[in-house]
Amino acid sequence: MNIVSTQLGNSLYNCVRSNLRWPLWTRSHFTYYPTRMGTGKRMNMFNAINNAMDLALDENKSALLFGEDVGFGGVFRCSVNLRDKYGSQRVFNTPLCEQGIAGFAIGVANTGATAIAEIQFADYIFPSFDQIVNEAAKYRYRSGGLFDCGSLTFRVPCGAVGHGALYHSQSPEAYFAHTPGLRVVVPRGPIKAKGLILACIRDPNPCIVFEPKTLYRAAVEEVPAEYYTSQLGKADILRHGKDVTLIGWGTQVHVLLEVAEIAKSTLNIDCEVIDLVSILPWDAITICTSAKKTGRVIIAHEAPLTQGFGSELASYIQEKCFLHLEAPVKRVAGWDTPFPHVFEPFYMPDKHRCLSAINDIVNF
Amino acid sequence: MSFLRKSVHLLGSVARRQRHLKVIEGAISTAARDFSSKPSEDYANFPGAKAPFVSKLNLIQPEDYAPIPIYRVMDQDGYIADETQDPQLGREVVEKMFRDMVLLNTMDKILYESQRQGRISFYMTNFGEEASHIGSAAALEMRDLIYGQYREAGVLVWRGFRIDQFIDQCYGNTDDLGRGKQMPVHYGSRELNFVTISSPLSTQMPQAVGAAYAMKLRPNNDACVVCYFGEGAASEGDAHAAFNFAATLGCPAILFCRNNGFAISTPSHEQYKGDGIAGRGPMGYGITTIRVDGTDVFAVYNAMKAAREYVLKENKPVVFEALAYRVGHHSTSDDSTAYRPAEEIEIWNSVEHPISKLKRYMVHKGWFDETVENEYVKDIRKKVLKQIAVSEKKLKPNWREMFEGVYAEMPDHLIEQRSELEKHIEAHKEHYPLKDFEK
C-alpha cells in the first residue's frame, strides 16, 4: 500500500525547474521540485486531490464530500466532476458556516460513515476551532472509546499565494498541533497529497490535511493512477547531507531544496533536507537522527515565528540532541505580524533568508 | 446602460427556467399592486426569496405575529382537555413513565446532597423537566440516536441506564463507561444509543444533524436523531448552524429545545427577543415546528410521536420546543435564589410540577396507590444510597489509562510520556493517591 513513502525514502530529485514549464509562476518565491515516481499520469496537485477523492468515494460507499462550493467543483477545482459521478447526496454544498461544516462532519463520522469536509481557506477554519479542538479531537477520549469521529478528514487550503494578504495566506498548523487527538499533515506536491488524503480518510482518527494552495496548479508530477497511501507520522528525507539539517513542510520544502542546491554550489555546504509531512504526531526519530548526524538544524515555516511549530521542533531537538549540537537551532519563519498584502516578499522565509541562516549556523 | 439591460434580461431568463418560481409576465406596474389588501399570486424573480412585491412601505414588526401556541393534553389538575388528544397509553406504560420520573427525581435529590457533602465533585439535577425527558424518550425507538446537552438523564432512565451506571459515572470509577475521563453527569452509552455528553454547549447540534444525514442515506433507514439543548444554548452559533444545515440538507433530526426559562442566572428575556426558540423554526429556517407544555408528559409524548413520524417520512427536521421551568439550581455550583424568588420556584415545584400532574392523572384513573408509591420511593432511596456506598469504594481506573483513547492507537510520543510518568511515580509513590487506582 505504502509505495510512495517507501520509494520516497531513497529517491532522487528531479532538478528541472518547474518555472521553465510554468512561466506563469515565475513570480512565486519558490521553485518546484517534483517527486519522481516512475510511471504515472501527469497531474497537478488539484488533479491528484481530485483523483484521491474519486478513489475514496468509489471505494467507500458511505463516504460523503461536502463544504462550501464543493458541488460545482470547488473554488480550487479539487472536487470537479465528483458530484456528477457520485450524486448530489454524496457530494454537496453546505451553507456558508464553518462551525456547521465541522460539526456536521463529526456527526457523519459518529455514525461510522466517512466524512471528507472542505474548509475553503485555512484562514476560515477558526469558526470551527471549537468543533475541531473541543469535539473532534476529544471524542474518543472523553467517551472512554464508546464513540469517535475517526472517519473524518478535513481538507484545508493553506499558505502563501503571492497576493492573499491576511485572510488567504495563513498557515494555522501550530494552533492544531497543540491539540492531542488530531492528526495534522501537509503535502508538498501531488503524489504526497494523494497519498496523504487517502491515508487520512482511512485513518481511524480525525485528520486535517493542510494543502498549500499555491501548489494546486504549480506542482506537476507523474502521479500513480492506482489507490495508494502515504505513511502518516513519517517525515521524508528529500536530500541527504552531512553539514546542516533543513526542516520544512508544504511549499517551504521547495524553498529549502533550492537553498540546499545553492549552498552546495556556492558555499560547498551539504544540507540534508527533510519534509516533516506530519505536524502531529510528528516523526521525532527521523528528525533527531538527522540532527545528531549534522549537529546543525534550521527549521523554516511560513507561519509566524512565536509559537510556530518550529518552536516545538527546536525545543525537542535541544532536549534530545544537546550533546550533538554544534550551534543553536535556528528558526526562519514568517514575522510575528499578520500576513501582509503588498509586503509579502519581505514577509516570507524565502531562499535568501534561509541561505543566510545557513551561513550563520555554519560559522557559529 | 445597454449592458445593464442585457444582464437584467439574462437574469430573468435564467430565473424563468426554474419552474418552481412564479413568473410575472409582461410589464405589470408594481405600483398598481397593494399586497396588504390583495395578496398577489405573482412572485418576483429574485433568487433569494419567493415573495410578491408590495408598494406600501411596511416595517415588519415581531408583534404582527401571534406567538406559537403551546400544545397541551393534560391540564394542571391532571384532566385531559380534549379526549381526541388522549394518547390512550396503557396503565403499564403510564406507570413506567411515572416511576422513571420518580426514580430520576429521587436519584437527583440524593446525588445533589452527596455533592453537598463533598462525596462527588459536581452534579446537575433535572427537577421540573422530568416530563420532557420521559415523554420524548417514550415516543422514540431504541434505534433512534440521542445527542444531549447534560440535563436529559431521564432519557437514559427510560432507555434502561441503571442506577449503578449513573453513579459509577459520577464517581469516575473503574465501572464508569467513560473511564473516569469526564466530569459527573457526562453520561454516554453505546448500547442505549446515547452519544456521550460534552460540556461545550450546542456543539452536539450540528453533529446530530450530520448523523441524521448519514443515517438518512442508509438503505431502508427507519431511525431518526434527536438532539436536546437548552434555550440558552440555542443562542450559540452552532445552534444556527444546526437549524440551517438540517433544513437545507434535509436531515431527519428532531431539534428538541428544553426551554426552562433560565441559562444559569440569565432569564430567557435576556437570552432572546423573538417568540422563544419555536419562533425561529418556520419563518426563520423553514422548519416544521412544534411547541409543547414540557410539564405535560402526554403532550410531549404525542408531539414527539408526530415529530418522529414526520422526520422519517419527509426526511426533514423538526424544531421542538418544550416549555418548562428549571426548578433546581443550575448546578451544584449555583444558588439560584440569588437571581429569582423562592416563591416562584415553589409554584413550579408543586402545582405545576410534571410529576404532580401525572400523579393527579393517575389518581383520576384509579391507577395511583399512595402506599405503593411511598414504598417505591423508599426502595429507590435505598438503592441509590447503597450504590453510592458501593461506587465510592470502587477503585478508579489504572492511571495509565489517562494516555489511552487520545488516538485509536497510542503514538510514540504518548508511549514515551507514559513511561516518563511511570518512572516518576515509581520514584515518588508517596505523593500520589495510588491506592485509589487500579494496579
From TrEMBL, chain A:
<comment type="subunit">
    <text>Heterotetramer of 2 alpha/BCKDHA and 2 beta chains/BCKDHB that forms the branched-chain alpha-keto acid decarboxylase (E1) component of the BCKD complex. The branched-chain alpha-ketoacid dehydrogenase is a large complex composed of three major building blocks E1, E2 and E3. It is organized around E2, a 24-meric cubic core composed of DBT, to which are associated 6 to 12 copies of E1, and approximately 6 copies of the dehydrogenase E3, a DLD dimer.</text>
</comment>
<dbReference type="Pfam" id="PF02779">
    <property type="entry name" value="Transket_pyr"/>
</dbReference>
<dbReference type="Pfam" id="PF02780">
    <property type="entry name" value="Transketolase_C"/>
</dbReference>
<keyword id="KW-0560">Oxidoreductase</keyword>
<dbReference type="GO" id="GO:0007584">
    <property type="term" value="P:response to nutrient"/>
</dbReference>
<keyword id="KW-0496">Mitochondrion</keyword>
<dbReference type="GO" id="GO:0003863">
    <property type="term" value="F:branched-chain 2-oxo acid dehydrogenase activity"/>
</dbReference>
<dbReference type="GO" id="GO:0005739">
    <property type="term" value="C:mitochondrion"/>
</dbReference>
<dbReference type="InterPro" id="IPR005475">
    <property type="entry name" value="Transketolase-like_Pyr-bd"/>
</dbReference>
<dbReference type="InterPro" id="IPR029061">
    <property type="entry name" value="THDP-binding"/>
</dbReference>
<feature type="domain" description="Transketolase-like pyrimidine-binding">
    <location>
        <begin position="43"/>
        <end position="218"/>
    </location>
</feature>
<comment type="function">
    <text>Together with BCKDHA forms the heterotetrameric E1 subunit of the mitochondrial branched-chain alpha-ketoacid dehydrogenase (BCKD) complex. The BCKD complex catalyzes the multi-step oxidative decarboxylation of alpha-ketoacids derived from the branched-chain amino-acids valine, leucine and isoleucine producing CO2 and acyl-CoA which is subsequently utilized to produce energy. The E1 subunit catalyzes the first step with the decarboxylation of the alpha-ketoacid forming an enzyme-product intermediate.</text>
</comment>
<keyword id="KW-0809">Transit peptide</keyword>
<dbReference type="GO" id="GO:0160157">
    <property type="term" value="C:branched-chain alpha-ketoacid dehydrogenase complex"/>
</dbReference>
<dbReference type="GO" id="GO:0009083">
    <property type="term" value="P:branched-chain amino acid catabolic process"/>
</dbReference>
<dbReference type="GO" id="GO:0120552">
    <property type="term" value="P:branched-chain alpha-keto acid decarboxylation to branched-chain acyl-CoA"/>
</dbReference>
<dbReference type="GO" id="GO:0005759">
    <property type="term" value="C:mitochondrial matrix"/>
</dbReference>
<dbReference type="InterPro" id="IPR033248">
    <property type="entry name" value="Transketolase_C"/>
</dbReference>
<protein>
    <recommendedName>
        <fullName>2-oxoisovalerate dehydrogenase subunit beta, mitochondrial</fullName>
        <ecNumber>1.2.4.4</ecNumber>
    </recommendedName>
</protein>
<dbReference type="InterPro" id="IPR009014">
    <property type="entry name" value="Transketo_C/PFOR_II"/>
</dbReference>
TrEMBL record, chain B:
<comment type="similarity">
    <text>Belongs to the BCKDHA family.</text>
</comment>
<keyword id="KW-0630">Potassium</keyword>
<keyword id="KW-0496">Mitochondrion</keyword>
<keyword id="KW-0809">Transit peptide</keyword>
<dbReference type="InterPro" id="IPR029061">
    <property type="entry name" value="THDP-binding"/>
</dbReference>
<keyword id="KW-0479">Metal-binding</keyword>
<keyword id="KW-0560">Oxidoreductase</keyword>
<keyword id="KW-0786">Thiamine pyrophosphate</keyword>
<dbReference type="GO" id="GO:0005759">
    <property type="term" value="C:mitochondrial matrix"/>
</dbReference>
<dbReference type="Pfam" id="PF00676">
    <property type="entry name" value="E1_dh"/>
</dbReference>
<dbReference type="GO" id="GO:0120552">
    <property type="term" value="P:branched-chain alpha-keto acid decarboxylation to branched-chain acyl-CoA"/>
</dbReference>
<dbReference type="GO" id="GO:0009083">
    <property type="term" value="P:branched-chain amino acid catabolic process"/>
</dbReference>
<dbReference type="GO" id="GO:0160157">
    <property type="term" value="C:branched-chain alpha-ketoacid dehydrogenase complex"/>
</dbReference>
<dbReference type="GO" id="GO:0046872">
    <property type="term" value="F:metal ion binding"/>
</dbReference>
<comment type="function">
    <text>The branched-chain alpha-keto dehydrogenase complex catalyzes the overall conversion of alpha-keto acids to acyl-CoA and CO(2). It contains multiple copies of three enzymatic components: branched-chain alpha-keto acid decarboxylase (E1), lipoamide acyltransferase (E2) and lipoamide dehydrogenase (E3).</text>
</comment>
<feature type="domain" description="Dehydrogenase E1 component">
    <location>
        <begin position="100"/>
        <end position="398"/>
    </location>
</feature>
<protein>
    <recommendedName>
        <fullName>2-oxoisovalerate dehydrogenase subunit alpha</fullName>
        <ecNumber>1.2.4.4</ecNumber>
    </recommendedName>
</protein>
<dbReference type="GO" id="GO:0003863">
    <property type="term" value="F:branched-chain 2-oxo acid dehydrogenase activity"/>
</dbReference>
<dbReference type="InterPro" id="IPR050771">
    <property type="entry name" value="Alpha-ketoacid_DH_E1_comp"/>
</dbReference>
<dbReference type="GO" id="GO:0005739">
    <property type="term" value="C:mitochondrion"/>
</dbReference>
<dbReference type="InterPro" id="IPR001017">
    <property type="entry name" value="DH_E1"/>
</dbReference>
